[in-house]
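tool=predict chain=A
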Amino acid sequence: MTTPTLLLGFALATMYGAGFHLWQGGSARRLALYLLSGWLGFALGHFLGEALGLRLFPIGTLNWLTATLGSVVALFAARWLTTREVEPGRRR
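tool=predict ok
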């Protein structure tokens, strides 16, 4: 991958994580979690698309669609894993 492709991927994954935080809200700790999840999911999605030979909506050498799907899955998984249900009558 070229440097411009890496920078584009990093920028897109950062926007996905920051946008998810803007939508879901939370503390600075949650922002860090969402940024890391967005970056990791984006990278895994890209490399999974490469491994499976999926080239849907590529931007240069970047598998944009599979990377975006990986980022979205990772963000929702992070949200689901960090949200606990509180029993009635109990505090967090």
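The helical segments are 3-24, 28-52, 64-82. DSSP finds three helices and no strands in the chain.
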